[in-house]
Amino acid sequence: SRWYQRRVRDTNYITNNLSMEELEHASSVELKDPDQALKLYHSITNQTVNSDDEAKIKEVELALSSMGKLLAKQNKAKELANLIKSIRPFLGVVSKAKAVR
């Protein structure tokens, strides 16, 4: 129904905007509270991503990149290695998305 389609679209809009707000907030607190920033980046990267949702893929890519840079700055090699291992499933989604384009 139209109501359901509108509801799904509105929910997706709200969810995407919340992710961008979380990403911006994490970036703004990196210097003051790096551990909080890592938690925020982690919450973004743990979200389910579909291969057809380019906006969500981009947000997760940005969060992963920022998280990796922050871990490198803090000399947290073990955590950085774990991050690299943990993103393998996401890389599969990204490669599917790029293949579709």
Tags for this model:
disordered N terminus, mainly alpha, 0% strand, 82% helix, 101 residues
Written account of the structure:
With 101 residues, the protein is an all-alpha fold. Helix content is 82%, strand content 0%. The protein has 5 helices and no strands. The two termini are 29 Å apart. The model is unreliable at 3-16 (pLDDT under 50).
Helices and strands in order:
Elements: H1 2-29, H2 34-45, H3 54-73, H4 77-86, H5 88-100
Task: Summarize the model shown.
With 101 residues, the protein is mainly alpha-helical. It has helices at 2-29, 34-45, 54-73, 77-86, 88-100. The relative contact order is 0.11.
Structural class: mainly alpha
SSE pattern = HHHHH
Distance between the termini: 29 Å
Helix content: over 70%
Summed up, the helix count is 5
Mean pLDDT score:
80
Count of individual beta strands: 0
Low-confidence spans: pLDDT under 50, at least 5 residues? 3-16
> What's the gyration radius in Å?
15 Å
Instruction: Indicate the proportion of strand residues.
Output: under 5%
The quaternary organization reads as single chain
